[in-house]
Amino acid sequence: GQNIDQPTEMTATEGAIVQINCTYQTSGFNGLFWYQQHAGEAPTFLSYNVLDGLEEKGRFSSFLSRSKGYSYLLLKELQMKDSASYLCAVRDSNYQLIWGAGTKLIIKP
Amino acid sequence: IAGITQAPTSQILAAGRRMTLRCTQDMRHNAMYWYRQDLGLGLRLIHYSNTAGTTGKGEVPDGYSVSRANTDDFPLTLASAVPSQTSVYFCASSNGTSGYNEQFFGPGTRLTVL
Predict the structure, then answer these.
(1) Which residues share a beta bridge with A4?
(2) Where are the alpha helices (DSSP H) in chain A?
(3) Half-sphere exposure of B59 (CA within 13 A, CB side)
(4) How many distinct helices (H) and strands (E) make up chain B?
(5) Which one of A95, A98, A103, A104 would you mutate to disrupt binding with B, by most B Cβ within 10 Å of its Cβ?
(6) Quick check: A44 and A33 in contact, CB under 8 A?
(7) pLDDT tens for residues B10-66?
(8) By the CB < 8 Å criterion, does A39 face chain B?
(9) Any A CB within 8 A of B51 CB
(10) Which residues of chain A have a CB within 8 Å of the CB of B102?
(11) Residues B59, B77: Cα–Cα separation, whole Å
(12) What is the pLDDT of residues A41-52, one digit of tens each?
């Protein structure tokens, strides 16, 4: 079967750095996405990785290792507004997204 | 209209009733999707459409049907609602299904079936 694993919840301090991990086992791989979802709102796109390595976009970076079936999202200089759920999704061999359950990130002052 | 809209925002429905959730996008995206999101579970794909006139079944299609008569609209119908269909429903669209084509999401419909 297909499986995406992420920690259920993480807590971090404002101004700090946090790394959210995602491991996957899917039938095929055609890219990995990270989305942010604030409570009661729709998911919004953060990043896309298809090749191994690090993609940096402002305070957010995403890393991919295809051989290990592993990705992480790195958030720097945390702000209170970063309190949200972070969703990892893998595009499989059918070009459909398989979603993890999401990691709820709590930022404390 | 800007992006994707969904209607209604929320609905309480009696079991056995028929219900259509509406989704409209103005981005001229080829592909559209319907997901449900339940607590503790990831988004699960119900149905999708890669282009107008075609539809396909996702992971959890039973009890749902869709149509794609044109590029902009992708309604989701529950023929006879059951309590297990209580969920938040998101419609999404993307310009394509491969490469750097992220999915854009509508605001969601919160459906309660009693």
Answers:
(1) A24
(2) none
(3) 17
(4) 0, 11
(5) A95
(6) no
(7) 999 999 999 999 999 999 999 999 999 999 898 999 999 999 999 999 999 999 999
(8) no
(9) no
(10) 33, 45, 48
(11) 16
(12) 999 999 999 999
